[in-house]
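Final report, results section. Input specification for complex C-07:
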Amino acid sequence: MSALLALDAVSAGYGSFRALFDVSLEVAQGQAVGVIGPNGAGKTTLMRVISGLLPLRGGAMTLDGRAVGGLAAHRMVEQGIAHVPENRRLFPRLTVEDNLRIGAFIPQARKHFAGQLARVYELFPRLKERRDQAAGTLSGGEQQMCAIGRALMSRPKILLMDEPSAGLAPLVVAQVFELVRRIRAEGLTVLIVEQNVQQVLDVVDRAYLLEVGSIRLAGSAAELKGNDFIRKAYMGL
Amino acid sequence: MSARASTLLVGAVLLVAAPLVAPPYFMHLIIQVLLWGFVYTAWSVMGRFGLVSLGHGAFLGIGAYVPALLWNYYAVTPWLGIPLSVVLSILLGLVIGYPCFRLRVVGHYFALVTLALGQVVMLTIVAARDVTGGSLGFTPNNVGYSWYAFQFPEKTHFYVVALVLWLGGLAVWRAIDRGVGREALDAISEDEEAAAAIGIDVMREKLRVTVISAALTALGGAVYGQYMMYINPETLSGIAVSLQIVFAAIVGGMYALLGPTVGALLTLSLNEGLRVGFGTSFIGAANTIYGVLLILCIIFMPRGIVGMMRGATTRRARTKPAPAE
Amino acid sequence: MQGWADGMDIYLLEAVINGILLGGVLALLALGLNLIFGVIDVVWIAYADLVMCGMYVIFWLYADLGWPLPLACLAAIVGVAALGVLVHLLIIAPILGSAPINQLLATGGLLFFLQNFATLLFGTDFRNIGVRLPIIELGDIYVSSARLLAFAMALVGAVALWLFLRRTYIGTAIRAIAQDRDIVGLMGVDQRHVYLVTSAIGGALAGLAACLLALQYDVHPFVGNTFGPLIFMICVLGGLGDMIGGFVAAFIISQIISIGGYYASTELSYVLAFTLFIVLMFVRPRGILVR
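Structure output:
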């Protein structure tokens, strides 16, 4: 299986503070990969580096064989990376449909706007019901749907999801991960960063453990689920 | 003798010698530099703590018009009229300052409220044209040399007055700079909530500098009116002069004692230089250049000329906080 | 007309109507200023002086060079739009990260520059483009058709802006950036590009206002000072950055001025308006229409 996204010894930080140290990971085409780890480990930083919100300080990043390290965020979208930010970050006073529309901003997405919108509404019928509602008035789970839908509008090659369960009730969390499974079933490649270890390991093929800015463990979901350290530290078993 | 002491000595000698040797034209310039330097310093007492007022012309106007009107209509000596105008300005400063600070009207909003204030005063002066002469201006009755009327045809007297004012302004500035209030105000301008949380009486500190600034500015306006013997709402309270105060203080450097004075020196030399050099054929050239300088100054030297020479580093370094993860 | 005008002072009615017509242009400018503030978070203190530049462009092209008036107006709109882009590139962009007050003051420097550069070029004389449009008589009320035209065009401009913001991708991006600046990049939106487009639109609106004002008023380098502070006040009253708030506030203020000018003098009506503003600032610091 060929790697769609590959990070090779990537470092990054904020000012004089270094958050990521020589991080290497791979996501193969059609796979779902998870990144787990405690708060402050650098998971969101990792997402921001991949999506271009934060510049690389060292190492290299390739997407589909192309070097993409150091590109600005809006260029990354053109390359095929879509990032669903932590806490959704919808545009609260825009309608659901306007939020989806802005997701299709890049030229290649505009051409297929109508078709892609129909697909998203098919995946998330609730969004269609609320298409003219202000996004800020949606419930937590609906907002997550909208955020994912917005990312899908750019017809990405890989979808980055930053803590999709954050701030959501357990029932809703289960629904969100069900959505992730459905997206996967459509053939989309997904990279998920998550605190909820149990849920995410049930959804992904492979996973990495990120602690204090470095990869500590890597393996298939089954391997990590069976790993003693992870079971004790992160699953409370 | 240290470099600092010898500079002070040279400065003092110059200041004393000036009225004895300088021709009236230069005296006029020096008086202007001192007076406007005083006014700019008064403004920077507020400005350096983040209370940027775009309407200090209001205080200039009150300071100039109240004594002049009282003198012309009621023969009230400026020795009473000027303190009255100072009191009125203080009241105005409180009336505007108290609600503003209480309701956390800061930054952009504060600047625009003060802009409106300057406009209100100017428009009121113009609207009351029957009394004030409106946009045509107002001339205090000239009685020649008179202590009672605070009028002196010879430049030397006003030179001394301007010098005293200027030095007084510097003393006040320094007192605030060295005083306990300074740390409090710096804290307030960095983070008002945090400052209040550690027990700083935000309201009192802000009102204090506002009152001081208003009072001194009014005083400057009053003396200016007495000196020029002609006052005009546009010259004292228009937008241009209110902005000019801000600019001169910033270009000169409002975080340094002599910064605003340097600003006054700069603006006046620029104006005079161009006037002398090109006469009336290039009206507006001075201020055009000034505008460009201002823009460049904000972009490249936010702490002003004096601040840059001191090698001061910007305290307000903005670092983007890392996301909570 | 005679019927319902009976019992109401004709001149008062005229003042009300003139107030509405005046409000149109003020509303247009408030939209422009609010747009720029809402998106880029900067107050262009020199905004009224951009209008002044537009007025001079029209004066120069039409009265000096003899261009047809509609063409001169179009040139003004395009010209001031370009000026807006320049303002952003040269003055705002370099200091986007510094304290907001610095940005405000930098545009203040621009105000100084524009006003005095215009003085250098054109002198301080009042100029007029000399277009005299007829006065329309509606019953007993006299309305200047120039004012009417200005109002109509201002509304057209406002509607055009609204459609642009609602229906186009870049318009939606502009609205989005005003709500969450940092993540628009994740949708493929180039922040800098949006800022430039916004500056161009702000300039274009100022250019349009220039056309409308040139029809009615003289131009001189300091004409911006007559309505500049008014526009800021209107924007703050409606809530800085709130387009609808500014739009409504413009008409409220213009009514105060028009009716106040009828009962007292024009200057007093301004004093009233500004004083009201200061008072309202204390009652509702975030703007009277805050929701």
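The longest helix of chain C spans residues 10-40. Chain C has eleven helices and two strands. This concludes the modelling results for the funded period.
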